[in-house]
TrEMBL record:
Keywords: Cell membrane, Membrane, Transmembrane, Transmembrane helix. It is found in: Cell membrane. InterPro entries: ABC_transp_permease, LivM-like. This is Branched-chain amino acid ABC transporter permease.
Length: 320
């Protein structure tokens, strides 16, 4: 077993032990896991050199699916609600993706932004159905038919989001290593050569786009259940920009950047807001400036580079 695998297992064990030894932060960590799912979708698209400023629409789709279905079922079951959020975000991802994958770069980003703002307006204006800016309340669901009180359910949703976040990270990592994932990266470097070998760049990008939409939908469904509400703010442009911000902060070259960036972002936002009131955005701005100027590969990339330099230094010292 490699050192990397051992490290991953240790990280998973530490995270699994959080409700036992640090129960007070389990809701905070569940929010981190939920957002990391959406950021993972953004990182996936960035492999093809495409930036979306509208993936909040899939985030909101997952949350509102949970809200409406839960209201119809009188609460519903966690597994069913999350699965429904996955399906609706997949359907919307295919519908929007068939149109936007024909465009690249700024046009790709702006079209996604336009779609997300259309959805935002619909959610705001149809208040008799969507609750307008107040949103829709999400009742606490059961889990596999079992009912839990607030404290017990916080632990259930923590482990559910942890499993989804780690499982999604592994699946995306394997996808990016596959021939289809390599083709997705080729769109960024030389799309024409991809066409020469018989692969449709649009089809390759569409697959990546739909996967990213599903990841955002899962994140939105999870965060909606955690917070107990779905609001139009989930699809507002600031939410989509937040995902891009976190992806750059954590590092776009590694799937671990999604979880790392989400953890640092939420920690700075939570604790900076507690100490400097309304100025936490200023602190986040400085953090992002330092990352871009001093470590453009993000926090994970910086840590990887430091580890490689340390290994090289040791090799020189030992004469190997």
């Amino acid at each position: 077993m490699t050192l990397r695998n051992i490290s991953l297992i240790l990280v998973a064990l530490v995270l699994a032990a959080v409700p036992v030894f640090a129960g007070s932060i389990q809701t905070f960590m569940a929010i981190v896991f939920a957002k990391s799912l959406a950021v993972l979708g953004i990182i996936l698209l960035l492999q093809a050199g495409q930036v979306s400023f509208g993936h909040g629409m899939f985030f909101a789709t997952g949350a509102y699916t949970v809200a409406f279905l839960g209201r119809y079922l009188g609460g519903g079951d966690l597994v069913l609600l999350v699965a429904a959020g996955l399906v609706t975000s997949l359907v919307l991802g295919v519908a929007v993706g068939l149109f936007v994958v024909r465009y690249r770069y700024i046009f790709f980003g702006m079209l996604n932004l336009a779609f997300s703002m259309v959805l935002y307006s619909i959610l705001e204006k149809f208040f008799h159905l969507t609750g307008g800016s107040d949103g829709v309340r999400i009742r606490r669901p059961t889990f596999l038919g079992q009912t839990f009180d607030r404290g017990q359910f916080d632990t259930v949703i923590y482990y559910a989001t942890l499993v989804m976040a780690l499982g999604a990270a592994i699946l995306v990592w394997r996808y990016l290593k596959s021939p289809l994932g390599q083709a997705l990266k080729a769109i960024k470097t030389n799309e024409t050569r991809l066409e020469y070998i018989g692969l449709s760049a649009r089809s390759v990008l569409l697959v990546g786009y739909v996967i990213s939409a599903v990841l955002c939908g899962l994140g939105g469904a999870s965060l909606g259940i955690i917070q107990g509400i779905a609001t139009p703010e989930y699809t507002y442009w600031t939410r989509s920009s937040e995902f891009v911000f976190i992806a750059i902060l954590g590092g776009i070259g590694n799937v671990a950047g999604a979880l790392t960036g989400s953890l640092v972002y939420e920690a700075v936002r939570t604790y900076a807001a507690a100490f400097v009131a309304d100025s936490w955005q200023l602190i986040l701005g400085f953090v992002l400036l330092v990352i871009i100027l001093r470590a453009p590969e993000g926090i994970v990339g910086l840590a990887t580079s430091m580890a490689e330099r340390r290994r090289a230094s040791r090799a020189v010292e030992t004469g190997k």
